Amino acid sequence: MKQFKLNINTKTQKYPIIIGRGLLNNIPKLLKNNSLYFTKCLIVIDNKIKKKIILRILKKFNKKNIITFLFNANEKNKNQKNVDKILAVLLKNNFQRNDCLISVGGGITGDVSGFASSIYKRGINFVNIPTTLLAQVDSSIGGKTGINTSFGKNLIGSFYQPKLVISDIDFLKTLPKREIVCGYAEIFKHSLIFEEKFFSFLDKNANKIINLKSPFIEKSIIKSCEIKKKIVELDEKEKSLRKILNFGHTFAHAYESSLNYSKRLNHGEAVLLGIYSAISFSLKFKLLSKLNYLKIKDHFIKYKLPNKINNYFLKKDLKRLIYFMKKDKKNTSNLINLILIKKIGITKLNLNFNEKVLNKFFIEELNN
Ligand SMILES: NC(=O)c1ccc[n+]([C@@H]2O[C@H](COP(=O)([O-])OP(=O)(O)OC[C@H]3O[C@@H](n4cnc5c(N)ncnc54)[C@H](O)[C@@H]3O)[C@@H](O)[C@H]2O)c1
Question: Cβ contacts of residue 319 below 8 Å, gap of 6+?
Fold first, then answer.
């Protein structure tokens, strides 16, 4: 595959996403080719990246200029304490604004590093090198950074665009299958909210994508990035349109938070459950036709994607689920704001429901 370059043009920053294979072998060259010059560089690396790959990445850097920080990426560590640790390294080594922080990892490493970059001296150069499918198709694009607190997920954060994104598909070779499915969740979401033709492609080829077969994996990564690019360019700060990217996520964040970010349900799996809840809710509220609902449901069944909330929750958990839904960032009142779907490719924004409606919905879903 030759390198593919996608330029993101938001109001605050223009930057390229470079997608390809073998890119990790010469990152300093890619930085220079994209006019990124700095004296010092802190590389925050997910500690599950294989040592030999880390060594391959570091080999081309000038050893005198770089500091590495190994990060144990999980939702419990996506917190202020780890942001503070990164800030302490930057401060101790007197990094200047025109120095650079590079994240090499999945969505968690990227969100934590991006947030630290945005607040260090009010903003240091940030480069994102996503190593999971989820991060390559979603979290590395669009500049959302953030951390979790005991009150809920991603409630503290910033909009801070990277200077460059380098997406090397070869990273995915070491990614567990379970994590590939999590990335697939966001690809699937992009098709549902934006393009029926892409959904039809996924409906035919999901197994090939999940098994990383060429050219299906490349096509779905590029298409997903293109969809996200269109959305974030039109609405960088999520005033309106960008909210559609939260499709399924109001449910998903409540599922993850309620289980206290247990390994039983990781982020992408929660997103799949959340998408399923959102299509069921859309059907119940007569927004989505039965035909479209069944088409989407069939995709879940055919590819064995998680869809049963009663595998994770009981009636006694409802209060906690609703507590977290009420903490969602999109809410503007005491009501719960949901992104629903009218038809594959078309969503409906700004619908608000009270907790009684949600309670009834969950009871029916749990009895299913
Ligand atoms: N900023 C955004 O716009 C945005 C969008 C979507 C999701 N997110 C956030 O992203 C996070 C989920 O991201 P994720 O699914 O990438 O999770 P993650 O960063 O936890 O990575 C998943 C797992 O894969 C491991 N890993 C990473 N790269 C690997 C590789 N190449 N080989 C082997 N193992 C590897 C990690 O250590 C981790 O165990 C969530 O916290 C979510 O809120 C952010």
Answer: none
Nearest to 134 by CA among 259, 10, 220: 220
Ligand 1 pocket, residue 232 CB under 6 Å: no
| Dihedrals phi, psi of 79, to nearest 5 degrees | -140, 175
Q: How do strand 336-343 and strand 164-168 relate by DSSP bridges?
A: unpaired
Taking only the tens place, the pLDDT of each residue in 106-159 is 999 999 999 999 999 999 999 999 999 999 999 999 999 999 999 989 999 999
Distance CA 64, CA 368 (A): 60
Residue 47: predicted pLDDT: 98
Closest Cα to residue 9, out of 298, 194, 229, 201?
Answer: 229
Question: Which segments in the chain show pLDDT lower than 70?
Answer: 1
Nearest residue by C-alpha to atom 9 in ligand 1: 107
Phi, psi angles (nearest 5°) of residue 256 = -65, -45
CA of 112 relative to ligand 1 center, distance in Å: 11
Residue identifier of the C-alpha nearest atom 6 of ligand 1: 139
- Sequence-distant (6+) residues with CB within 8 A of 150 are none
Give me the DSSP letters along 214-263: TTHHHHHHHHHHHHHHHHHHH-TT-SSGGGGGGTTHHHHHHHHHHTTT-T
pTM (predicted TM-score):
0.97
Domains, the chain: 4-174 (3.40.50.1970), 177-366 (1.20.1090.10)
CA 171 to ligand 1 centroid distance, Å: 12
